[in-house]
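ok so I'm stuck.
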Amino acid sequence: MKLIQWFPGHMTKAMRMMEENVKLVDCVVLVLDARAAFACVNPKLEKLFQDKPVVYVLGKSDLVEKSDAARLCAAFAAQGKTAVCVSAFDKRTVGKLYERIEESLAEKRERYRAKGVTKAFRVMVAGIPNTGKSTLINAFAGAKKAVTGDKAGVTKGKQWIRLENLELLDTPGTMPPSFENQTYAKHLAYIGSINDEILDFEDLALELLGELAKIAPQSLNEKYGIENFDAPPLELYEQVCRRRGFLLRGGEYDYERCAKAVIDDFRKGRLGKIALE
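replied:
not stuck anymore, here's the structure
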């Protein structure tokens, strides 16, 4: 599979915008996708926010097993980071995020109270593309106030969303300038954080099937009837083609259609609750 790199020009502009606005905020929420949590950590953003309280949100946690979500949160906590597992469709977990934000702001809020000052604190919501930042903000606000979409790069500019005692700044998704870890790059491609137009879906599907055969064989068995998990990825791929009827005239395999189906099945949780890391 060819090297994956994606850092379009608008991301340089987005980074500059965040550099300018970080001094205006009191706290940062970094949104990660629980299916590829470590791949979603952008060191460039971490460095930018190093002087601010940061809450790491393992979003889309409904797409992984509860045991994996707990394991991932514990791994971040072991690094001294505040982390919380959240599903935008579960008000209880959204409430936990609110608690973590308030805990990170408690000392500052108390200082203001002592001076008789009440203000809405500002929180920047950041992360790589398509991790669900805008969806999370809408869950927080209880209304559709931020633009959402199921592909990378929907949020193009900053949006301020005013709540009762917080102001949330929705920012565009931003990648690292380069991927030194290509396993992480593939994970980001699987979950839709990288522009699909630059990807070879057939290669990507082969890589995904090979990885799932190791970490989630039961899912492949239940969805596609695959039984021989020691087979090369291409053979797994062809088993899916036969099972799903992705065949061309003459009985040739429709690799393109199969690739799109496999990637879509994973992204939409049809293969089950799977954490890649």
